[in-house]
Amino acid sequence: MSDAVEALKALLPPLAASRLQSLKLADGTATLVLDVAGLDRLERDRLEIAVKDALRTAPGVAEVRVAMTAEKKALKLIAVGSGKGGVGKSTLSANLAVAMARMGRKVGLVDADIYGPSQPRLLATEGRKPQATEKKLIPVASPWGVPMLSMGHLVEPGQAIAWRGPMAGNALGQLIDAEWGDAEILVIDLPPGTGDVQLTMLQRHKPAGAVIVSTPQDLALMDATRAMQLFETGGVPVIGLVENMAGYECPHCGEISDPFGTGGVEAAAGVMGQTFLGRIPLDLSIRIESDAGNPPAASDSPQGEVFAAIARRVLTWIDNR
Ligand code: ADP
After folding, report:
1. Quick one: angle between helices 218-233 and 196-205, nearest 10?
2. Co-location of 64 and 80 in the same domain
3. Does residue 118's CB lie within 6 angstroms of at least one atom of ligand 1?
């Protein structure tokens, strides 16, 4: 895409940017196609005026034409859940979304882990505040091609801890029912556990499918089984299971050790008749890069390939629905 077109895109108001389908510049005429599905007449008129105001005085632009379409693909929600915290659910959610975006898919990410939102750190959007239309939040653009929303973008760290029940449910609803523009897939990093917040979310928003992540040891697996039952109760099909933190390769001697064992999740998936989606090794670089806001899935490293392989399996499932 030309620099001139990129420069024009950068001038667009956030709502227009999130709904932009195409932008061309020829002979001084900028022609935009915007997806206006779900906007009422007044909102469409305002959007057109805002776009014209933003681009009219840009260099090389003599005229601005705005075309509007309302063909919106259904947004498919993919929930990533775990029976308990600390097993790598957020790490997997972020990297699944980044891997899918690298495969050319339009994918957004919701950090529904309202009690411990970590996605702003994982995807380098800490401290950013989402803008909003009159009715909806506009996702924050991350450097990894994945628009995202997290409670961490709305409240100070620690503030949401006191939320329970309906308040938590409503907050979550706002993140999910945001302006996702032309996104086709929304990855949702669920709060850990199998309580009311999770069940309410499933019943209200009906994800197309769920990915369950677990560490290999028995106790974690029992929690994962509970998570699976939660999805079944909520009528959400389980896409498959992911094993995280298996087999630690010592960075000094190369010896593989298994602090949490290995293979337990694959065996459990087999017993439960579920698909095994892949195994992520316990790898110091995954933690270090993740903490620094560099998702491993954004690179062609072996760690990146592990997440890409899982993302491909999830996409195959989604595309065959
Ligand atoms: P959860 O969302 O289940 O609470 P996180 O994704 O936040 O878990 O992961 C917990 C911690 O473990 C984080 O510090 C994360 O960087 C680290 N971690 C997750 N997966 C791995 C892995 N495969 N190798 C090394 N560290 C990992």
Report:
1. 40
2. no
3. yes
Mean pLDDT of the chain: 89
Q: What is the pLDDT of residues 91-118, one digit of tens each?
A: 999 999 999 999 999 999 999 987 788 9
Whether the pLDDT of residue 265 is over 90: the answer is: no
| Phi, psi at 257, each rounded to 5° | -125, 160
Q: Check whether residue 85 and residue 225 sit in a common domain.
A: yes
Q: Are residues 85 and 22 in the same domain?
A: no
Tokens standing for residue 97? 């979304």
Range of the domain at 188: 76-319
Helix (H, G, I), strand (E, B) or coil at 85: coil
Ligand 1, atom 15, lies closest to the CA of: 287
- One domain, residues 115 and 64: no
Residues pairing with 110 in the sheet: 149, 188
Within this chain, do residues 168 and 310 fall inside the same structural domain, yes or no?
yes
- Record the pTM: 0.80
At 162 the pLDDT is 58
E strand or H helix at 150 = strand 147-150
CA end-to-end distance (rounded Å), the chain? 33
**Residue bearing the bigger pLDDT, 321 or 290:** 290
Name which residue sits closest to atom 5 of ligand 1, judged by CA: 88
